[in-house]
Amino acid sequence: MQVIKVTDMKETMVDTKVTYTLQHSGKFYIIEHVPARVCQETGDEYFSPETVEHIQKMIQGNRKPDRVVETPVFEYA
Q1: Cα(first)–Cα(last) distance of the chain, in Å?
Q2: What is the structure's pLDDT at 56?
Q3: Residue 20: how many CB atoms within 10 A of its CB?
Q4: Residue 21's Cα: distance from chain center in Å?
């Protein structure tokens, strides 16, 4: 077993903005410019609880979208 000192570890997380997608109640949503911390090694995205709450309120509220895009859908066969 290898022991790694905390001082030897480097920070691989960066603060950035991402495009977040989700499906809710049969609809597909795209939210642009969402603040996130992204791991440079794995690409994993992490969101603060406040950001998640804000996204939920946007989707569940009656806010008009900034724009609407048409998206093709394919069934894997």
Answers
A1: 45
A2: 92
A3: 17
A4: 7
